[in-house]
Amino acid sequence: MLFTFTTSSHLAMKSIRAYLVAAAVVIIASPVTITHADEPPLGDPPLVNEVPNNCGISISADQNWLSVNDNDDNNDEIWDFETESGASGAEPVVGEKDTLKITVTGTADKSDATVTVSIETGSDKIDGFWEGTLTISGQTLTSRQLEELAQKELEGQKKDSSKKTTFTFTVPIGRSATQTLYIEGIKHSDSLKDVKINARVEAPAGITPDPDNRPFRASSLAATPLEITVYQVDLDVDSNNDNAFDFAGFDDAEDKIEASEKEDANGSKRPGKIVISSSQTNSDGDDVPDFADGFNLPFTGTVNELEHVSETLKFVPVQVELKAPFDTASAKVKFTYDPVSKPELSEDDIGVTGAGTPEDPYVFNLNKGGMRLWKKKATERTSGFAVPSGDFVPADTEINWSDIATDISTPRKAKLYLEYVDMTPAEAAGRKNITVTATQEDVKSEDKVIASLVFFDVDVDADNTTVDNYPDQSQSDRGSAEEVAEDKEGHPGVRVYANLIDADTDGIPGYADGIDKFGNGQANSCWKFEPLIIEVASLQKFPNSKFKLKYSASDPDQMTQQGSGADATYLLPEDKVLRIWKKDGDEVRKPQGADQDGDFIADDQEYSAEELGWQEGETTIRLYIEVVIAELEQSFPIEVEFYPIGTSRPECIVTEKVKVDPYYISQENLETYN
Predict the structure, then answer these.
(1) Does position 170 have pLDDT exceeding 80, yes or no?
(2) Which of 40, 260, 266, 456 is deepest in the core (most CB within 10 A)?
C-alpha cells in the first residue's frame, strides 16, 4: 500500500517526524512518498537537516542595443513592429531579422523551477517577447513534448498577437533549460540603457525524494538585469508627393510608404518621391547649363565662378533626424545612393571644352547622369567639393553628423537637397533607393526612402543646325549647346517657315491643305513641319501622367471657308500663330483635338501620353510645329507641362519651354527654298 502525505505547515512536519519514529516498528508494504509545498512560517525554528535547493539563472543578449524596426519587409505598407504586434491584424512578418536575440538559462535542482522574464523599464520602447527555441539538457522528451518543441522551431517567426511584458517557462527537476527570446525596437530610447529586462528562477520548498527524505527550502534567484538602448535614425522625403519643395508632411503615414515595394493591380510599385531631372534647364539664361552652374567648378587651371542660378531651380528636400540617445558630437552618417553624378570635372562627370572667350565659349557636357545630395539649396551652394570643405554630400562616405546638421536650433535634424541630372539617353532614370546609416562606436541604425528619377526634356532644333531629319545625332543635336539655346535670352529659337504657300499647286494654301476638312484631306499637300520632341524615360511607370502644352494655338477645326473650288478662301481664328500636331505636314491630319481622336494639340488641354501618340516601350513623344501667320517680328514660346501623377496633384509638376521663330517664305522665293 502506498501512503502519500502532503504537509503545509511546520506543525505538520513535526507530526510526520513522529510518524517516522513510530514506523520503525511498523511493517510497511509499500514505499512512502512525502512532499512539502511551503516554507515554515516566519519565526518558526528552522527545519532539521535542511539541504540547499541549488537553482541557477542567467540572461544575456547578442548586443546591448537595437534599432527601431520601422522597416516594411512584407510590403504591406505597415511598419514591421506594428504588423507583428497585431496592431494591424495582419500576419507576422516571416523571416524577420531586425530583432535582438536574448538567451535565458535556468537550472532546477530538487523540484521543477519556473523562470520568469520581465520588462522592468522601457516597455514603451520595445515589443516582446517573441518566442524562439527551448532546449532542455539531458532530458528524454515525451512524444507530446517533442510535438510542442517542433512548434517552437520557427525561430523568430511567431509571436503572440498581444503585447507581452513577461514570459515564463518551466525547468524540469534536476535539469537546465535554455530559452531564446526576441525583442524589437518600436521607439527610440530617451537615454542610455533605459530598457531593463529581468530574469528570475523560482522553485518551491519540499522534501527530497531520496531515502533520507530531507526537507529543502524554496529557491528564488534573480539574474543581473539586461540593460538595452534603442536607437533610430529617420530619413524623410515627400514620399506621397504632396508638399512640392517644402520640408513638411513627414508624418507616420508618409513613413510607412517611403520604402514600399507593394505592387498595385497593374504590377506597378509606388514611385516614392518623384524627382525630375534639372540638367536640361538653363534657369538663369547664361551660357551654362544648370548641371554645371551654381557652384565653383575648377578647370583649366582656374576656378570658374559659376554661382548664378535662378530661384526657379529647386532641389527636392530630404530630411535626416538623428534621434536620442545618439550623440550628435560623435555620431557619423553615411548616405548610399546610386548612380551618382559628381559635381566635378572628370571623364565620368562633367566635361568642358572651349577657351572661355566670345569667339570660343565654354561648352559643358554631362558625361554621366545620376543623383547629387547637397547640404544647401540650389541658389545657396558655393562649392562642389565634398563636405566639410564643400556643399556636396558624397555617397558611401562616413561623414560627421555635425558637418551636415549645421543649424544650432535643430541639432538633431539635417536639411539636405536632392538633385537629379541626366542627358539623353537617360540611363540613370528609374526607381532608386537612398539609404542613411548612422553609427556610433558599435551601434548602427538605418533608414531608407525611394526616389523615382524622371528624365523630362523638350527639344527643338534650337540652334537651327539640322537641315532635315531632326535630331541628327551626327551633329550632336539635343546636346548641351542646344539646350542652352532653347530658351536663352536674345536667341530667337527654332526657325519654322510659315505654311502659307500652295506647295502642291492645287489652289489651297498650305495652312488649309492636308487637313480632313472641306474636302482638303490629301497626303503630300504640305512640306514637313518642324519636330518637337518630348522625352520622358520610364513613362510606363506613371500610368496616370498627364501633359499640357501652352502656346498661341490656332485651332484648325475653327478655320472657316468662304466660297468654293478654286475661288475659296480660308479664314483663321483669332489671329493665333501656331499649331502643334501628332502627324507631320505630308500626312493627312484630323482637325479635331487629340483627346477626341483627332491630331491637333490644343492650348492648355490635358492629354494622356497615349493621346499624344506615345506607345508602350517608347521613351519619346514626337509632335510637329506648324506656323500659320507670316511676317512676324517676334518669337513665340511653347511651354510643356508634365504631371507625373496627374493634374489633380498640381504641386508635382515640371515645365520646360522652347521658342519658335516664325519665318516667311513667299511664293516667289519658294523655288529657292526648295
Answers:
(1) yes
(2) 456
Question: Does pLDDT of 595 surpass 80?
Answer: yes
Q: Confidence class of residue 478 from pLDDT cuts 50, 70 and 90? A: low
| Residue 42: Cβ-neighbour burial (10 angstroms; 0-12, 13-18, 19+) | exposed
Q: Which of 232, 255, 189, 229 is nearest to 445 (CA)?
A: 232
Name residues whose C-beta falls within 8 Å of residue 47's C-beta, 6 or more positions apart in sequence.
10, 13, 40, 215, 217
The Cα 524–Cα 540 span in angstroms is 34
Residue 576 burial by Cβ neighbours in a 10 Å radius (0-12, 13-18, 19+): middle
CA distances from 598 to 555, 572, 583, 640, 671 (A): 12, 19, 10, 19, 33
Say how far residue 290 (Cα) sits from the centre of its chain: 25
Strand runs labelled E in 281-326: 297-299, 302-304, 316-322
Predicted local confidence at residue 281, as pLDDT: 75
Give the angle subtended at the CA of 471 by the CAs of 470 and 472, to the nearest 5°.
100
C-alpha pair distances (Å), 420 with each of 59, 128, 391: 50, 42, 16
**Quick count: other Cβ atoms within 10 Å of Cβ 478?**
23
Q: How far apart are CA 209 and CA 18, in angstroms?
A: 19
CA 443 to chain centre: 23
Largest CA distance in the chain: 147
Whether pLDDT at 138 is above 60: no
What is the pLDDT averaged over residues 384-391? 93
User: Residue written as cell 496616370?
Assistant: 544
Q: What is the mean pLDDT of the chain?
A: 81
Highest mean pLDDT of the ranges 13-17, 176-180, 436-440, 666-670 = 436-440
H or E segment and range at residue 89: none
423-450: buried (b, 16+ CB within 10 Å) or exposed (e) per residue? bbebebbebbebebbbbbeebebbbbbb
DSSP string, 507-519: S--GGGSSBSSTT
Where does residue 342 rank: exposed (0-12), middle (13-18), buried (19+ CB within 10 A)? middle
The pLDDT tens digits of the residues spanning 621-635 come to 999 999 998 767 889
Q: How confident is the model at residue 171 (pLDDT cuts 50, 70, 90)?
A: very high
User: Which tens digit of pLDDT belongs to each residue from 496-525?
Assistant: 989 998 888 888 999 999 999 999 999 999
Nearest to 366 by CA among 346, 384, 337: 346
Q: Which three cell numbers stand for residue 458?
A: 523638350
Rounded CA Rg of the chain = 39
pLDDT digits (tens, 9 = 90+) for 77-99: 665 655 544 333 333 444 445 78
Rounded mean pLDDT, 468-479:
62
At residue 456, what are phi and psi to the nearest 5 degrees?
-125, 125
Distance CA 516, CA 500 (A): 17
Q: Which of 123, 101, 246, 242 is nearest to 178 (CA)?
A: 101
First to last CA, the chain: 127
* pLDDT per position as a tens digit, 233-279: 999 999 988 888 889 888 888 888 888 888 877 777 888 999 988 87
DSSP state of 263: B
pLDDT at residue 671 tops 60 = no
Q: Three-class SS of residue 131?
A: strand
Amino acid at 43: G
